[in-house]
Each structure stands twice: as structure tokens, then as C-alpha cells.
Amino acid sequence: MLPATSLVPVTCALLADCLAFDHLAAGGSVERRREMSEAAEHGRMRVAVANGDTAGYSVVAPWFFDAPFLALLDVKSAMRGQGIGSRLLEDFEQAHGPRVLTSTNLSNARMQRLLRHRQWAPCGMLTGLDEGDPEIFFTKQL
Ligand SMILES: CC(C)(COP(=O)(O)OP(=O)(O)OC[C@H]1O[C@@H](n2cnc3c(N)ncnc32)[C@H](O)[C@@H]1OP(=O)(O)O)[C@@H](O)C(=O)NCCC(=O)NCCS
């Protein structure tokens, strides 16, 4: 049974939950904590709440060649595989357009399956960011 999921604007309490389950933020990454906190402060972060539990979040980048760029998407590890990432993507698509962009590592098969599942198409590759693991860009026309 799918969890009842709401997509809501971030609050201080929700941000604290997201900082606690995001792997990098919880591991003490100052850059990730700053990126998430600035996104929350500037209204660029959305949160998925499933059955009353903070389940995931998305962040839109402040600027990327004038197209909304999904910069971060993360679902709490215990809640993955239940359609929450898909709901966050759908929410992002509904809020932005007419063309949206994102990227993920070549090694991230799950994110790529999710993007293809929602009809995002690969549109380019960038090497040199993560050693041996190119960044694959995806786009969707809305
Ligand atoms: C990538 C990520 C966001 C996907 O989130 P998720 O909530 O697990 O995504 P979904 O549940 O919507 O889809 C994932 C799986 O569930 C399946 N699924 C999607 N909708 C579903 C539904 N309504 N009911 C049941 N299963 C569903 C998909 O087929 C997919 O299965 P597969 O991976 O075995 O092919 C999550 O794994 C994550 O947070 N990873 C770490 C961070 C990350 O990699 N972020 C993206 C890179 S920038």
C-alpha cells in the first residue's frame, strides 16, 4: 500500500528533519548543510511528508541557463521504493517549466530509472566532476 504523501513548503522543523536524514548533511558536510539551508530560506525547497513522517525533499537551483534545474532530490533511505521520489519529481514538474533539467551520476541507476519512468530524456554528459563517474543530464518538456 502506498503511503499518503503530501508535498509541502519547507519549515524550520522540516528542514531539521531533512538535515538529519540527508546522508551528506548528517555526515557533517558544511557545503550540503549550507545548500539546503539557503534553499529553504529562499523558498527553493519542497518536502514530502508521508503518513506524518518527513520522507524526502527536492531543491531547485537558483540559476541554471534560465531553466529550472532540480539540484537535489533525496528520500529517507527507509522510505525509498514507495513512490515518494516519483511524487517529488511530479511536484517539481508541476511547479516549473516549460523545460526542466537535472543531472545524476552515471552510477546512479535508480535515479536514472526514476527519471526515465517519468519521461525525462538524457541530453548530455559532463566528465571530470566525480573521478570515473560522469554526470548525465536529463531534460523534460512540460
Ligand atoms: C533516487 C531516489 C530519490 C529515488 O527515490 P524513491 O522514493 O526510492 O523513488 P520511487 O519509489 O518513486 O521509485 C524508485 C523505485 O520505486 C518504484 N516505484 C515508483 N513509483 C512506484 C509506485 N507508485 N509504487 C511502487 N513502486 C514504485 C520504481 O519503479 C523504482 O523501482 P526501481 O528503482 O527498482 O526501478 C532515492 O533512491 C534517493 O534518495 N537516493 C539517494 C539520493 C539520490 O541518489 N538522489 C538523486 C541523485 S541527484
Write the layout of secondary structure elements.
Layout: E1 5-9, H1 12-21, H2 23-26, H3 30-41, E2 45-50, E3 53-60, E4 69-75, H4 84-95, E5 99-105, H5 109-117, E6 121-126, E7 135-141
Bound molecules: coenzyme A.
Structural features, described:
The structure is a single chain. This protein is α+β, with helices and mostly antiparallel strands. Helices cover 33% and strands 32% of the residues. It has helices spanning 12-21, 23-26, 30-41, 84-95, 109-117, and strands at 5-9, 45-50, 53-60, 69-75, 99-105, 121-126, 135-141. Bound molecules: coenzyme A. Residues 2, 73-75, 80-86, 104, 108, 110-111, 113-114, 117 line the site of coenzyme A.
Structural class: alpha+beta
Bound molecules: coenzyme A
Domain module tally: 1
CATH domain class: Alpha Beta
Q: Give a quick account of the main beta sheet: strands, pairing sense, barrel closure.
A: 7 strands, mixed
Number of beta strands: 7
Q: Widest sheet: strand order?
A: 1-2-3-4-5-7-6
Helix content estimate: 25-40%
The number of helical segments is 5
List keywords for this structure.
single chain, 142 residues, alpha+beta, Aminopeptidase, 7-stranded mixed beta sheet, 7 strands, 33% helix, 32% strand, binds coenzyme A
Quick structural summary:
Helices cover 33% and strands 32% of the residues. With 142 residues, it is an alpha+beta fold.
